[in-house]
Amino acid sequence: MRDVLEEYRARVSILKKGYAQERYRIEQLGRSLLGDLEVRSVTSVDIATYRDRRLQEVNAKTGKTISAATVRLEMSLLSAIFDVARIEWGVAGDNPVAKVRKPKTPPGRDRRLTAREERLILRYCNEYRNAELLSIVIVALETAMRQGEILGLRWEHINTRSRIAHLPETKNGSKRDVPLSVKARDAITRMGVKASGRGVLLKCCALARHDRLPVQ
After folding, report:
1. Phi and psi (nearest 5°) for 59?
2. Residue 105: is its pLDDT beyond 90?
3. pTM, rounded to two decimals
4. What's the CA gap between 100 and 103, in Å, rounded?
5. Residue 118: count of CB within 10 angstroms of its CB
6. Domains of the chain, each with CATH number or no CATH
7. Residue 9 and residue 5: Cα distance in Å, rounded?
8. What is the mean pLDDT of the chain?
């Protein structure tokens, strides 16, 4: 199974916008009990066992158990891998994930940062070694844009006069214009942006696409 996971990463995942996150999930799957199994021998019982054990694991960084949402994402990825392995590569049988219940996720929370929390985050960003982090976080707080959308911004898609950021391609495949608040516009302007120009907005983009930002 581990070879199929790596093959999927190299041939399919690498073409996706969310490659960094998917690569991390594939590495997790490869380290699990599933990684040692032959792809054709994996059963729905194996998948259910993975699900139940994963839900009991503790995240070393947070000290909390792995969330149902995380396990659902991993199971969805597994299902896609089995489909590709069966339909396109002919190395797998029926999809065992399709027969297994995914864990239920609790209702989402509607919560905003307090003024104090925002000040603490911005203070940290201001002291961080990468000077661009402060601008990234301000734009995120002011626009609610996704991390990938912010890191993919280009100068030619920013109009500081009308305060608009154009996203030619979003996560769902469509394009949209995002209004910029004065704070967001000023954060971008402080980086030396002119009303016109071309090229990637953030110098850190080449690295950041494959690594998580220090502030989530």
Report:
1. -70, 120
2. no
3. 0.63
4. 10
5. 14
6. 2-99 (1.10.150), 115-208 (1.10.443.10)
7. 6
8. 86
